Amino acid sequence: MQGLFFEDLTVGQSAETTKIVGTADVEAFAAVSGDTNPVHLDEDYALTTPFQGRIAHGMLSAAYISAVLGTKLPGPGAIYLNQSLRFRRPVKIGDPVVTRVTVQALDERRAHATLATVCQVDGKTVVDGEAVVMVPRRPTSRV
Ligand SMILES: C/C=C/C(=O)SCCNC(=O)CCNC(=O)[C@H](O)C(C)(C)COP(=O)(O)OP(=O)(O)OC[C@H]1O[C@@H](n2cnc3c(N)ncnc32)[C@H](O)[C@@H]1OP(=O)(O)O
Predict the structure, then answer these.
(1) Which homologous superfamily does the CATH classification assign to the domain defined by 6-134?
(2) Mutate which of 59, 87, 124 to test ligand 1's pocket (most atoms within 8 Å of Cβ)?
(3) Alpha-carbon distance 53 to 65, whole Å?
(4) How far away, in angstroms, is 141 Cα from ligand 1 center?
(5) 16-55, pLDDT tens digit by residue?
(6) What residues does each domain of the chain span?
């Protein structure tokens, strides 16, 4: 269960996932986070907002970014250090969210990687930002 080592990373490498946001996902996220904002949970309330219906928690999309970093690129063993986020468009229940991370810079001294992080629905950016993660170095073999 080991992801890529720092030495395996190159600028431009990318990975992505697609997740369809279901009602149960939003309700589960509200339960585990404690964020019961009615704009996410109460359709009658949400209809009165500019979004005209329930929208997903912004941090649920952010969790999809974390999932790509932690399972694909760099993968298991990666440690979050920083994440910026801009919530550009709402994510509605039923939207297929494509989350892509792309290596932008590598700090050899610290074994840190900076990745562009983008979530899109139907080709339109809903969330963008940048992540910095600490990546395990490949163990050196001793003779
Ligand atoms: C407590 C937690 C709650 C939640 O989790 S809620 C769920 C997460 N949030 C969302 O889903 C919101 C998603 N974002 C949007 O839907 C839209 O975004 C807005 C409706 C809020 C605004 O859209 P529009 O009125 O069309 O604004 P514009 O014309 O695209 O931009 C106007 C100026 O505002 C800047 N801007 C817009 N969104 C962001 C952002 N998310 N972060 C930083 N800047 C933003 C632009 O660049 C631009 O600026 P310039 O006039 O200088 O060009």
Answers:
(1) Hotdog Thioesterase (3.10.129.10)
(2) 87
(3) 24
(4) 50
(5) 999 999 999 999 999 999 999 999 999 999 999 999 999 9
(6) 6-134
